From TrEMBL:
<feature type="active site" description="Charge relay system">
    <location>
        <position position="288"/>
    </location>
</feature>
<dbReference type="InterPro" id="IPR040449">
    <property type="entry name" value="Peptidase_S66_N"/>
</dbReference>
<keyword id="KW-0645">Protease</keyword>
<feature type="domain" description="LD-carboxypeptidase N-terminal">
    <location>
        <begin position="19"/>
        <end position="134"/>
    </location>
</feature>
<dbReference type="InterPro" id="IPR003507">
    <property type="entry name" value="S66_fam"/>
</dbReference>
<dbReference type="InterPro" id="IPR029062">
    <property type="entry name" value="Class_I_gatase-like"/>
</dbReference>
<dbReference type="InterPro" id="IPR040921">
    <property type="entry name" value="Peptidase_S66C"/>
</dbReference>
<dbReference type="InterPro" id="IPR027478">
    <property type="entry name" value="LdcA_N"/>
</dbReference>
<comment type="similarity">
    <text>Belongs to the peptidase S66 family.</text>
</comment>
<dbReference type="GO" id="GO:0004180">
    <property type="term" value="F:carboxypeptidase activity"/>
</dbReference>
<keyword id="KW-0121">Carboxypeptidase</keyword>
<dbReference type="Pfam" id="PF17676">
    <property type="entry name" value="Peptidase_S66C"/>
</dbReference>
<dbReference type="GO" id="GO:0008236">
    <property type="term" value="F:serine-type peptidase activity"/>
</dbReference>
<protein>
    <submittedName>
        <fullName>Muramoyltetrapeptide carboxypeptidase</fullName>
    </submittedName>
</protein>
<dbReference type="Pfam" id="PF02016">
    <property type="entry name" value="Peptidase_S66"/>
</dbReference>
<keyword id="KW-0720">Serine protease</keyword>
<keyword id="KW-0378">Hydrolase</keyword>
Length: 314
C-alpha cells in the first residue's frame, strides 16, 4: 500500500489581517523594520512586533527562551494570520526543539523567511504544512519589485509562477548566467533552502526528506571546498540520489583558499550529480541575491526548462 500525504496550505490572508514580525535568530531594531512595516500597510495588512524586536543577548534577538516564547505566542495567537521573520543570521536551530507545533498544525499560517529560517521550513515541512521561502523583513526595500510581489501574491492566494530567460535575468541581476543543463518537464514537490542549514540538520528530526522531490539550494559567504564537503555528505547520505530535479539559486560571495579549489560552487554541484538523470537548473532567482523570489516549499510544482527559458509554476 502506498501512503499518499497531502500538504496543508495555510489560510489565505485578507486585507485587515495581521502579520507578526519576530526574530528567531540575530538581533534587529524597530528602525530597521520601517520599510517592511510600510510595505505591509500598503498591502492593507496590520502588523505586530514581537518581543524579540529590539531585544539583545550578544548577537541574538534575546535569549533562546525569549525567541522561542515569542515565536510560540505568534503561532498560537488566533488573531495572527502570518509570521514574517525579521532577519536571519544564526540561531533558529537553538529554539526549534523548544517549540510546540500542535496548535499550528490545526490552524496553520504562513511562515515567511529564508536563510537561517530554513530550519523552520524543513521542520514544518515534516509536519505536512507548506511554508514560504522568501525575503525577510530586513532589506526588503533593496530587493526587486518581483521579490516583494512574490510574497504578496502567495499570502493573498493569487496565481503565481516564476519565469525567466537567460537574457532577461542577466539584465535584471547583472550576474553571469550559465546555460541551464538537462532540459525537461517535471512535476514534483519542492523543498530545500539554505545549503549550510540543510546540511546541519542531517540526522535530526528536522532533516529534509528528498525522495521523489525537487530540491532547491542556495548559500552565502561559504568556502568553495565547504560546498563540496556539504554536497558530498548529502550525496553519501542518499539525499541526492532519487530527486526529480535540483534548482540552484544564488551561490553568493563564495570564497576560496590561496591554493585554489578549482571549481565554482555550481560546477561542484553539477559534477557531484552528473550520474543522476534529472534536470539541474542554474542561477535561479532566489537566495541571497537582488532578485529573491518566493518559493512555496511543500507545494507540488511544474518545472519546465527549455533552451533559454525556465518556468516554475505553483
Amino acid at each position: 500500500m502506498v501512503l499518499i500525504r497531502f500538504m496543508i496550505t495555510p489560510n489565505t490572508l485578507q486585507k485587515g489581517d495581521t502579520v507578526a514580525i519576530v526574530s528567531t535568530a540575530r538581533k534587529i531594531t524597530k528602525e530597521e523594520l520601517k520599510p517592511a512595516l510600510e510595505l505591509l500597510k500598503s498591502w492593507g495588512l496590520k502588523s505586530v512586533l514581537g518581543k524579540t524586536i529590539g531585544a539583545e543577548e550578544n548577537q541574538f534577538a534575546g535569549s533562546d527562551e525569549l525567541r522561542a516564547a515569542d515565536f510560540q505566542e505568534m503561532m498560537d495567537d488566533p488573531n495572527i494570520n502570518a509570521i514574517w521573520c525579521a532577519r536571519g543570521g544564526y540561531g533558529t536551530v537553538r529554539i526549534i526543539d523548544k517549540l510546540d507545533f500542535s496548535s499550528f498544525t490545526k490552524n496553520p499560517k504562513w511562515i515567511i523567511g529564508y536563510s537561517d529560517v530554513t530550519v523552520l521550513h524543513s521542520h514544518i515541512h515534516n509536519l505536512g504544512v507548506e511554508t514560504l521561502h522568501a525575503q525577510m523583513c530586513l532589506e526588503i526595500e533593496n530587493k526587486t519589485e518581483k521579490s516583494r510581489e512574490s510574497i504578496r501574491k502567495v499570502i493573498f492566494g493569487e496565481d503565481y509562477l516564476i519565469s525567466f530567460s537567460v537574457d532577461a535575468y542577466k539584465e535584471a541581476c547583472g550576474d553571469t548566467l550559465q546555460e541551464n543543463t538537462r532540459l525537461g518537464f517535471i512535476k514534483g514537490e519542492i523543498i530545500g533552502g539554505n545549503l549550510s542549514v540543510l546540511y546541519s540538520l542531517v540526522g535530526s528530526p528536522s532533516e529534509m526528506k528528498t525522495e521523489g522531490k525537487i530540491l532547491f539550494i542556495e548559500d552565502l559567504d561559504e568556502m568553495l571546498y565547504h560546498i563540496d564537503r556539504m554536497m558530498m555528505n548529502l550525496k553519501r547520505s542518499g539525499y541526492l540520489k532519487n530527486l526529480k530535479a535540483i534548482i540552484i539559486g544564488g551561490m553568493t560571495q563564495m570564497k576560496d583558499n590561496k591554493v585554489y579549489f578549482g571549481k565554482t560552487a555550481e560546477e561542484t554541484i553539477l559534477d557531484l550529480v552528473k550520474e543522476y538523470n534529472y534536470p539541474v537548473i542554474l542561477n535561479f532567482p532566489a537566495g541571497h541575491i537582488l532578485d529573491n523570489r518566493g518559493l512555496i516549499l511543500g507545494r507540488e510544482v511544474k518545472l519546465i526548462s527549455e533552451n533559454d527559458k525556465v518556468i516554475l509554476e505553483f
